[in-house]
Amino acid sequence: MAGSVDSGRVREWRGRMARFEGAQQSVAEFCRKEGVSAPSFYQWRKRLAQRVGPAEEATGFRPVRLVPSAGVVVQLPGGTQLHIATSDPEALRLVIDALARVDAQFAGDGRC
Question: Of 2, 11, 51, 53, which one is least surrounded by beta carbons within 10 A?
C-alpha cells in the first residue's frame, strides 16, 4: 500500500530510539554510530510519536473511553432535578429516605 510504512522498519526504528534513550549521546553522535542521518532520526522520532496502531498494542497500553457513572435522577414538580450517583450508596439512601418522609407528610393531599 502506497504511503504505508512496513512493520520491519517500524520495529527497527523503535529499537533504534530505545537505544538512543540509553546511549547518553548527542543525536549527531548516535546517528553517526548507527549509520543514519540526523534528519531521518528526527523524522522517525516524530512519526513514531504520532503513530497509532497494532505496534502500540505491544506496549500494553489500551485506549480508554470514559463513561459517565450510572445514577438516579429525581424530577420534582417544580422543575428541580436531583442527580445522585449510584456509586455513592449512602447519598442515594439519604435522598430516598428524605423523599419517603416528604411523601409520607403529603400523603392524601395529592402533592408530592
Answer: 2
